[in-house]
Write a structure and sequence with these properties.
The chain is mainly beta. The chain has one domain: Jelly Rolls. The chain is 0% helix and 62% strand. β1 and β2 form a beta hairpin. The radius of gyration is 12 Å and the shape is globular.
């Protein structure tokens, strides 16, 4: 069954589910700045909107728009700026 998640005082919400091969979440972020930590490798795809990401070990942000993806290593931290209300899909593992 689905599991719902809420972070940053409700500004980020997601629903967890199992794909055929990997666990995943689909969610939304309100406009704002967030720091996320990973336990597993993550592949995030922007469904709508855009996200500016500061990857681990970098200082410059990269912006990803609808249809674009990025990978984050396990056991790391990354900064996200949601430039508008943004929907995403995240695959774990």
């Amino acid at each position: 069954m689905f599991k719902t998640n809420e972070y940053f005082d409700g500004k980020v919400k997601s629903i967890a589910f199992q794909t055929e091969t990997l666990p995943a979440t689909v969610g939304v972020m309100a406009t704002g700045e967030y720091t996320f930590n990973t336990a597993e490798k993550e592949k995030m795809t922007v469904v709508s909107g855009s996200l500016s990401i500061i990857m681990p070990g970098n200082t410059a942000a990269q912006t990803f728009s609808s249809g674009e993806s990025f990978d984050i290593a396990a056991n790391s931290s990354f900064n996200v700026t949601a430039n508008s209300e943004t929907a995403y899909l995240c695959l774990y593992g």
